Structures are given as C-alpha cells and as structure tokens.
Amino acid sequence: MPATPAVAEQAPLRPNVMAPLLLLLPLFGQSFHYMKDLLPLWALSKAFPVMSLPLILVLLRHPLMPMTRQVMLTFLWCMLVPSIAAIYYFDQDFFTGIAAQVKMLPLLYFYSFLGLLLVLRPTLRELGMGFLVWGLATYVSLILMWALVPKTWYVNGYVFGSSPLFSTDSRGERIRMPMYFGMITLFYCYRRFLTEHRARWLGGALLGVLLTLFVVKTRSMMVGIAGVLALNSFRAAPPRLRVLLLLTIPLAVAGLFSYTYLDSMFSTSASSGFDVRWVTAEKAVEFLGLIPSHWIFGVGTISPTSQDSLFAFFGHFFFLADITWLGIVFEYGVVGALLILFYEVRGLLFYRRLKRHIDDSLLGSLADYILYVLLISNLYPPTLSPGETATILAIFVYVWFRLRTETPQTANEATA
Known about the structure:
Layout (H helix, E strand, L loop, with lengths): L14 H14 L10 H13 L16 H22 L4 H6 L9 H12 L3 H25 L6 E2 L9 E4 L2 E4 L4 H17 L2 H18 L2 H18 L2 H18 L17 H15 L3 H6 L12 H5 L9 H32 L5 H15 L10 H21 L1 H7 L2
Parallel strand pairs: 1-2
Antiparallel strand pairs: 2-3
Helix pairs in contact: 1-6, 3-14, 5-16, 6-7, 6-8, 7-8, 7-9, 7-15, 9-10, 9-15, 14-15, 14-16, 15-16, 16-17
C-alpha cells in the first residue's frame, strides 16, 4: 500500500480540473439560491438541480456507491409524501404539491456532484483549493461591501422571502451573505491551527468569526461557530487541559452570547419575533392534533404557486421555517424528520470511518460543517439548503471510491 493515496497527493494544481470546479462549486453549494437581488444567478441556482442531472449518468458506469439508496429514499419521501398529504389536508393538487417541494431538489446534488468528481478526478488539494478560493472570495466581498456600500442600499422592513443582501433591523446594518464556503474556510483554518499552531491559521479563523459577528450578524451562525470551535478545541486538547476547557468554554460562550444583539436570541419580546413563532407552533400542534397519521406522515404544506397560502389558512403569519423541527414534522412527518436527521448524521459517521485511513483538514472541515448544520438546526432548518450537505456527502463517497480503487483493503475497512 502506498504511503499516501493518490487522492491525497500534493501534486500541482491542474487548470482543466480547477476551472470547472471553481465555476460550478457555488452552484452546488447553493450560494445564490436565496439571493434574489442577483436575479440571473438566483434563477440559474434554482434551475441547476435539473440542469446538472445528466452528470448522474456517470454513476451508471460504477458499482452502487455508499449512501446512494439512503439519499434517494430521503428525496422520494420529501418529494412525494407531503405532496400527496397536501391533497387531503390543504386541497392542493398533486403537481402543485410537488412545486412546494422544489427546495428539496438539491438533494440530487449528491449524485450529480459525485458524477462530476468521478469525471474530473480531483485530488483533495484541488478540492480544498476550490473551497478556500471561494471562502476567501466570501471574506473579501464582505469587507469590500461593508466598506463601500452606501447606507441607502440597506433595506428596512423587507417582506418575508425577499432575503435582501443588504438589510437593517434590530441588529443594525447587515449583509446577508451566503456563508457556506466562508464557514468551511473558517473551520479549515481552525483545524490547521490546532494541528500546526501557526498564527496565520488562527488569524484566518478569527477573521471569519469577526466578519460573521459584526457584518453578517446572523445569530444561528454564531451558535454553530461557537459549538464547532469549542468541540474541536476540546478534542485537540491534552487530558489535563480538557479539565480547564470544561470550565472556560461555557464561560466564554456565555460571555459571547451576552454581547449586543446575540442576547436577543433568548428574548421573548415582540421585537424578537418570539410571539410569532410561539403562535405558529401552537397552531401547528393544534392542526396535527391527536391523530397519529398526522404526526407520522406529516400533512404537507400549501405551495407558493397556489392561490391560497398558509397565512390565509391559519389567519396568522405562519412560517414553517420559524418552528424548525416542528415545521419539518408538520410537513414531512416524524418519519421524514428522521430521514432528514439521519441524512446529516450519516455524513458524520462516514467521515469517522474515512478518518481512520485518510486524515485530511479539508475532509475534517466538511464534517465540521455537517456538525454546524445540526447545531443550528433548531434555528435554521436543514431543509432550506439540503444541497450543501449533499455536496459534502458526494466528496466523502468520492474519496471512499478513490481509496477503494487505489487501496482496496483500506477502503473495505473504512466502510465496514
């Protein structure tokens, strides 16, 4: 067995691999999926799950890959079951119900991005460079926009679903930048710092934290960052230092969340939106009632393409995303919620098996992102951007495939 698998070799970057990776990574990462301000890129992002489907044909030339059936079962349940349920509970027709589930189409990125990887056959260095380039571009864009954009561009009182790039609310002026690549870059830098103890890597991680805290100003992101960095610090520390960390980490996190707008996360005032979420939860539980089938299979939802709306149906600002996991159970049932949860957890378990044979900072930071998604899932439901995890799972399976073909014994052990 070679000392270093070919997928982990530090060979020079190949332009014919890097060009398509850099071009397509933001689409597979759903970077523009909710950026209506950039209308052409937003429309392309919405259409890309279907446009990228031909890449799935590449998989037909290979044996069945791990997680293939699990992802397909999750996709079919999330597309079909709530669409059928909505026929009975909200008087939707089947195709209108399907239109309500287009947000789950990026689950198919698991197959299409895996197909792309099998065609390009990038090394981990090339994949890592692709993620880091877009992560750095995210940070630079945030700094430039924060410094140059005039205050008149910031929208006050935007409506739900508009997601303006520049907005003003109780937290002040915010730039609602998609942070998929920024977060992975942050976690990558911190992992490199924990292993190499070089200041430049700590500086990169701190830059990501500060930009998220003071420019993006999204509370759920800060929850995820704090959780991932704390867990990684604890795991990397020697036994004696862990005892100290058990005392200092909770104090540090408590101090962070008592700062400025972050303390509003625990507020029950009307300005925090708590009352809207509370009434939504009450109405959702009341509608599900004591009927087991409602809880087990879900009741679906009303499609945005329908003439009706959940707002009119419930007589209240009813956003399923506001009640996160309860909203997922409402729409997809307990079975669907478990499938979505296991979809995320399977990625973490698969990474742990890969790590026994290939310990790479990029793979670790991708696993950190899945952990981040789980940590913030009670604030930001994973159903809003399922393509982010799908892309990561595709990378894990691609690395498994490369190990299997280059070092079969290692790969068999890794996936036993």
